[in-house]
Design brief:
Helix content: 40-55%
Distance between the termini: 31 Å
Strand order of the largest sheet: 2-1-3-4-5
CATH architecture of the largest domain: 3-Layer(aba) Sandwich
Order of helices and strands: EHEHEHEHEHHEEEEHEHHEE
CATH superfamily of the largest domain: Response regulator
Radius of gyration: 20 Å
Strand content: 15-25%
Number of strands: 12
Number of helices: 9
Structural class: alpha/beta
Largest sheet: 5 strands, parallel
Shape: elongated
Oligomer: single chain
CATH class of the largest domain: Alpha Beta
């Protein structure tokens, strides 16, 4: 199911969109203002639906802050129909602009089409902020620069990135990468984690250690220096 972040202060509008979308193929993550929306933003969000007039920080500012870190599509949904409002939205990085009132069916169709174009199963290339992985060709890029990984290192990174924000125990990783018939030490996982982290360089904090349990892949600048 695709994940769409809806940042809208009007409860009724959020309820209409969430109810319509979640009966189908899109999961709605709700935020009632800009600050909450930014706190819920992460690299697995495939699309942002963004209102403009909200308490605290408005949609324009939210769009700018999202664009500092993420490149996912942003659709503005607003009652402001003036040309200047729409032009400003596009200039700040918005990809589309829908004026209210709108038909949920049309909004859903537009969002679904965009999400499908973002689907890594279609493109088979996934971007995690500064890290990009081509799963078809087993290629890894950091800040657009190709980085060489050994076969086992790549398999480990692929497994972690295909299970983002999920705690993976050492035994799980061992079974997935080395196989169920592997009888060596589980510490082999730690050794290869160190190798992968070294190649990630200044972004090695994407792989976080959960003490005595395993590892968690979570990209984003907010994680810097945590591990």
């Amino acid at each position: 199911m695709y994940q769409v972040l809806l940042i809208e202060d009007d409860f009724d509008i959020r309820h209409i969109i969430k109810t319509y979308f979640e009966k189908r193929e899109i999961q709605i993550i709700e935020a009632c203002d800009g600050h909450q929306g930014l706190s819920l933003m992460h690299s697995q969000i495939q699309l942002v639906l963004l209102d403009i007039m909200m308490p605290g920080i408005d949609g324009y500012e939210v769009c700018q802050q999202i664009r500092y870190q993420y490149q996912c599509p942003i659709i503005f949904i607003s009652a402001l129909s003036e040309e200047d409002n729409q032009l400003q939205a596009y200039q700040l990085g918005g990809d589309d602009y829908i004026t209210q009132p709108f038909l949920p069916s049309i909004l859903y169709a537009k969002c679904l089409a965009i999400c499908k174009r973002q689907d890594p199963q279609v493109s088979n290339i996934k971007t995690f902020h500064h890290l990009q992985i081509d799963y078809t060709n087993h290629q890894v890029y950091i800040d657009s620069q190709h980085i060489e990984f050994t076969h086992k290192e790549y398999l480990l990174l692929e497994y972690l990135t295909k299970n983002p924000y999920r705690l993976l125990e050492r035994e799980q990783i061992l079974d997935a990468i080395w196989g169920y018939d592997y009888y060596g030490e589980a510490r082999a996982v730690d050794t290869y984690i160190k190798k992968v982290r070294k190649k990630l360089g200044k972004y090695q904090y994407y792989i976080q250690t959960v003490f005595k349990v395993g590892y968690l892949f979570k990209d984003g600048e907010e994680n810097e220096n945590k591990d």
